[in-house]
């Protein structure tokens, strides 16, 4: 029976949250489609994560998707519903939290957005990334979805009139509730993992975790709290050939790729045409490019294929406009083209460990191969999730991560883990 339903707005977020339960031994599945019959398909699942793929939708569309799923989950008597939010507060935060509150008809939605393990925390309702207010960090400069405020109530109220209240964390003085509690979203200050543990214990005692919201940091406190423990899945021996596909333009990802290239990775930059021309890899020129990259994969053990080059994002936008491609289609075309390319490379050289950075890229790849379910196995490094998927009856493995996670050595570390067969 499903004990917890988690709704994430992109697939990398779905996986980095689901894996927190998997490593404790819970039976976890990540569904990549919205159609799910909770009563018929849930007998062997403790934690179900649904990728709503609503990060880039309008806030009205995102509200409806979350509302509809929550209503069905309530009718199926799922005990706990958890809205997974981005740890940098990107996406439709206000509308999706409001949808959860409205559909559940609960009085209070506790929101714990911190991820202390990744140095992301909340003080006085302000969200910080490595000590910097989030809107002043690299996430405030994102060309597709910049975070424009660091004060969480302001972020929520960009899309919703829901009541919000910030809750300071006072060690040894848990927040208490009273009859005059206003129905709304309660944002809890959190700086450390210990803070998260104490707050969730307190909320659970007061039966206030029927619904909840937060990023993967919150997920790490819940398996023990809800008794979701079992035999931890064994980490498989992975193919040593390592193919890294990067569709992220986050500066953190760029530094990781540059470092890997300097340390022995073969790196192929996609051209402007290869990136954003619609269905480029179905053209004759595209098929020639695929054959070239297949040869690269066959002759190298560590390969990077990425969308970065000497052009700025402004150059890409200018090129797109000159060729009749909208700014919205840039992101879609990049993920679709990378997905088709990745599928062809895996067909030609199946004995590879695949790593995909960027939720859009991973979603496009899974759709392209007709995969609608993944099983998270474990974390190779904090925020880098190893999952199993199936294609035509054969098992494959993919490592995923958000573009903003990890230090500059991350890709090299992961490749070294596989070659040295270190215990993970």
Features:
424 residues, alpha/beta, Rossmann fold, Molybdenum Cofactor Biosythetic Enzyme, Chain A, 2 domains, 15-stranded mixed β-sheet, 3-stranded antiparallel β-sheet, 14 helices, globular
Q: Would you identify the regions where 5 or more consecutive residues have pLDDT less than 50?
A: none
Percentage beta strand: 15-25%
Question: What percent of the residues sit in helical stretches (DSSP H or I)?
Answer: 25-40%
The strand line-up of the biggest sheet is 9-10-5-11-4-1-3-2-16-17-18-15-12-14-13
Structural class call reads: alpha/beta
In the residues, how many domains can be counted? 2
Roughly how many Å is the radius of gyration?
Answer: 21 Å
Give the CA-CA distance, first to last residue: 29 Å
Q: How many alpha or pi helices?
A: 14
**The CATH topology of the largest domain:** Rossmann fold
**Can you identify the CATH superfamily of the largest domain?**
Putative sugar-binding, N-terminal domain
Q: Mind describing the biggest β-sheet?
A: 15 strands, mixed
Given the C-alpha coordinates, what overall shape results?
A: globular
């Amino acid at each position: 029976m499903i004990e917890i339903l988690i709704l994430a707005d992109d697939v990398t977020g779905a996986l980095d949250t689901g894996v927190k339960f998997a490593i404790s031994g819970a039976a976890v599945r990540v569904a990549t489609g919205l159609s799910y019959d909770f009563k018929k398909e849930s007998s062997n699942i403790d934690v179900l994560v649904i990728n709503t793929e609503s990060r880039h939708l309008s806030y009205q569309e995102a509200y409806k998707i979350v509302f509809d799923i929550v209503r069905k989950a309530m009718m199926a008597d799922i005990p706990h519903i958890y809205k997974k939010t981005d740890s940098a507060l990107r996406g439709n935060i206000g509308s999706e939290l409001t949808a959860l509150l409205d559909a559940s008809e609960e009085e209070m939605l506790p929101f714990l957005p911190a991820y202390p393990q990744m140095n992301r925390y909340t003080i006085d309702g302000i969200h910080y990334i490595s000590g910097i207010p989030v809107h002043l960090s690299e996430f405030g400069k994102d060309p597709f979805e910049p975070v424009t405020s660091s004060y969480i109530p302001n972020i929520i109220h960009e899309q919703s009139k829901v009541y919000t209240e910030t809750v300071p964390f006072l060690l040894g003085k848990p927040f208490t509730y009273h009859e005059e509690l206003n129905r709304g979203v309660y944002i809890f200050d959190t700086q450390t993992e210990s803070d998260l543990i104490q707050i969730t214990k307190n909320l659970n005692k007061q039966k206030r975790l029927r619904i909840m919201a937060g990023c993967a940091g919150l997920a790490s406190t819940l398996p023990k709290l809800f008794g979701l423990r079992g035999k931890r899945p064994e980490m498989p021996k992975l193919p040593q050939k390592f193919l890294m596909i990067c569709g992220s333009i986050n500066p953190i990802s760029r530094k990781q790729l540059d470092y890997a290239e300097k340390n022995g990775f073969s790196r192929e930059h996609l051209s402007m045409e290869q990136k954003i021309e619609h269905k480029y890899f179905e053209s004759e020129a595209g098929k020639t490019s695929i054959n070239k990259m297949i040869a690269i994969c066959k002759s190298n053990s560590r390969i990077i294929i990425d969308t970065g080059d000497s052009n700025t994002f402004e150059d890409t936008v200018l090129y797109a406009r000159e060729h009749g491609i909208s700014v919205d289609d840039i992101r879609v075309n990049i993920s679709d083209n990378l997905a088709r390319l990745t599928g062809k490379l895996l067909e030609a050289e199946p004995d590879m460990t695949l790593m995909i950075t960027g939720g859009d890229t991973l979603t496009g790849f899974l759709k392209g191969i007709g995969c609608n379910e993944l099983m998270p196995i474990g974390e190779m490094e904090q925020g880098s999730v190893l999952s199993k998927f199936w294609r035509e009856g054969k098992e494959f493995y993919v490592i995923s991560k958000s573009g903003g996670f990890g230090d500059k050595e991350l890709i090299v570390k992961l490749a070294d883990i596989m070659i040295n067969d270190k215990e993970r």
